[in-house]
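Need a sequence for this fold. Nothing fancy.
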């Protein structure tokens, strides 16, 4: 589930990156055979870089971090031994420990569900297979999103195939309609009971998704199937995987809210990509329910072409999100009037209490935890600075600047008291 070439050096995976942006995967244009050939060239290039001691220099992240800007890069020598490509390693597995395994490259882009042809690659591989007996292994070599996308797409295909088999059993008199419908509902539609079901964002109800369901009504049943398979392939307790491709949208948005401005740009790009990916999964599930029972004779790309407006809808709507929280301005004005009277310091306790109430209300939809606490404290501090009388605000800013203090809530309150 990747475009970029991977080689193994002494059992450790390596991949080429651009010097100016070492934390981003390189997009590889062209066809799958070109990508496989490039992997062979990577092996040859590594062999040519071996120094006199038989080592090559590799770069890696000192520690894992979701945001690339938080990763520290370290350089270290590595003994150039047991060198082989990722494709060669998989080929060795199919010839031995997992005999008969077919290796297929799905050149998906990181964080995305593009190019659209990738869906059809998975469909083509599974369309003629027995859904109950064919086992699938997905790997992007390292990562969560692309591997989980492959799992989800395959699960949708298998769900439709199994549902079709059950329906045919009813048609031939082997089983009853109620029996088949009960299995289909429980296995492929009904979501596990959870408090998350009450949260519209955790359920993927973003503006562009609501627009999709409204303008293309068939996607409503597609979303049911997509959500069930996403949960099964996601993290516990609903699934046994490593990422929930729906819930990760809003959880990443929480990280965006708590981040500094420079890091917000990275989180925002991820969020937009995640929304686009979820949109495509719903579309694919809709397509699969429509064309899977007949054997997927029409491709997903053809289906998207026929449903004009889908590509334009996601292109124009994937960034439609509330990127900054709306604060109750009436409550802020009330505090401003209170603190701008006499005896400011005596009123500070009441002001702080009211400020925390505003922050709690603003982030009331978020689950408890460090991110929520950080956001509430940041908003409380920001709002306090906005409502302070001009003379006190001037003194606070001067102290912060001259003493190079951090503008956290406790520091600002201390400076207000001392002003």
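Here you go.
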């Amino acid at each position: 589930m990747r475009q970029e070439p991977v080689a193994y050096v002494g059992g450790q995976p390596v991949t080429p990156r651009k010097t100016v942006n070492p934390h981003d995967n390189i997009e590889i244009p062209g066809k799958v055979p070109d990508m496989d050939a490039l992997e062979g060239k990577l092996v040859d290039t590594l062999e040519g870089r071996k120094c006199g001691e038989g080592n090559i220099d590799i770069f890696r992240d000192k520690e894992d971090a979701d945001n690339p800007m938080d990763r520290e890069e370290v350089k270290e020598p590595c003994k150039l031994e047991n060198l082989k490509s990722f494709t060669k390693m998989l080929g060795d597995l199919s010839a031995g420990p997992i005999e008969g395994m077919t290796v297929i490259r799905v050149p998906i882009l990181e964080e995305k569900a593009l190019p659209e042809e990738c869906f059809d690659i998975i469909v083509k591989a599974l369309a003629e297979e027995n859904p109950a007996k064919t086992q699938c292994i997905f790997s992007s070599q390292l990562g969560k999103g692309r591997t989980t996308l492959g799992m989800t797409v395959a699960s949708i295909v298998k769900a439709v195939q199994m549902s079709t088999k059950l329906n045919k059993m009813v048609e031939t008199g082997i089983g009853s309609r109620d029996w088949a419908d009960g299995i289909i509902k429980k296995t492929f539609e009904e979501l596990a009971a959870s408090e998350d079901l009450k949260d519209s964002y955790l359920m993927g109800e973003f503006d562009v998704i609501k627009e999709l369901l409204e303008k293309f009504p068939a996607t409503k049943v597609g979303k049911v199937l997509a959500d069930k398979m996403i949960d099964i392939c996601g993290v516990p307790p609903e699934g046994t995987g490593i990422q929930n491709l729906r819930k990760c949208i809003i959880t990443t948005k929480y990280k965006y809210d708590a981040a500094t401005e420079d890091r917000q740009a990275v989180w925002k790009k991820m969020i937009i990509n995640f929304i686009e990916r979820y949109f495509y999964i719903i579309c694919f599930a809709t397509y699969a329910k429509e064309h899977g029972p007949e054997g997927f004779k029409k491709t997903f790309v053809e289906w998207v072409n026929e449903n004009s407006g889908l590509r334009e809808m996601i292109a124009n709507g994937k960034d439609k999100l509330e990127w900054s929280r709306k604060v109750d301005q009436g409550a802020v004005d009330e505090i401003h009037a209170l603190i701008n009277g006499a005896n400011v310091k005596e009123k500070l306790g009441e002001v702080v209490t009211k400020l925390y109430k505003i922050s709690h209300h603003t982030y009331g939809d978020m689950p408890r935890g460090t991110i929520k606490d950080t956001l509430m404290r940041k908003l409380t501090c920001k709002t306090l600075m906005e409502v302070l009388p001009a003379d006190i605000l001037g003194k606070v800013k001067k102290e912060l600047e001259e003493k190079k203090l951090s503008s956290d809530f406790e520091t600002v309150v201390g400076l207000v008291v001392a002003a």
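For context: The two ends are 59 Å apart (CA to CA).
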